[in-house]
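FORM 7B: Structural annotation worksheet

SECTION A. Query
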Amino acid sequence: MRRLATTLCLLFLVAAITACHSKPDDQAIVKDIQTKVADDPVTQDSRVTVESHMGEVTVTGTTSTVAAKKEIARKAKDEPGVTVVHDETIVGQGPSSGAAQGGRGEASAPATPVAATHPPPRPQPVVVPAGTVLTIRTNQALSTKNVQTGTAFTGSVMTPISLEGKTVIPAGAEVTGIVRDAKKAGKFKGGASLTLALDSVTVNGHKYNIVTEYFAQESQGKGKRTTGMIVGGSGAGAAIGGLAGGGKGAAIGALAGATAGTIGAITGNRDIELPAESALTFKLDEPLTLKSDAGGDE
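SECTION B. Predicted structure
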């Protein structure tokens, strides 16, 4: 009987010792599961919390994907010492900051709000008023011997135009014009007449249509001049000749001297000759509106 009692006591002692050695280490279980979650690319973006009590594990929080949710549950079930796993995680949006508890990610700073910006006000167009005088230099000779009504001519601005301290039409700006009327001198009687006008100016690459008063000159009778002052050398004067059949808008343009020799000379046979590089002035009949980028500092 005593031997039986001793045997039973030994068995009970062995069972007790075995039970003590097989008790789950909850702290080690939690740490191991968290490490595995943080190291796995599939699960490392999830934000979960792991708890363990006597090998009974509960996982809560948010996973980035369904696949991550399943993988975390599998890792918990495969952990040594785990007896039961309660998966209480939900699938949500992948977080932009942080990682699973104990992971290596750090929360990013909140985005700084961007202040609303307003576009700068659009520059106002520049208006060159009517009456502004354009002094130009012609590129080609004009003679009543060989030009006809409708013949085009070109030139460039000699004197820049400024408004409020800013150059709006620079020197060198290209201009185009047209012969409004041209008549040769008669063989025995009748004088020559030449009427010109500008029709465009180009500023900063933009071509603008313009309306100007006429420059007009005429001769009457052989050897007679009726155009008034003819300017030569470096002098300046006005060609005030009459315009045949003059009417509204047929104002007489001025003739400015700037080239060597006589400009607007009337030849012995009474034809009118304007050599190349003649300096002529035209007055704007209508305001000229330029784009806002046309003006510049002087």
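SECTION C. Observations
Residues 94-107, 225-263 have pLDDT under 50 and may be disordered. The longest strand covers residues 193-203.

SECTION D. Sign-off
Analyst initials: ____
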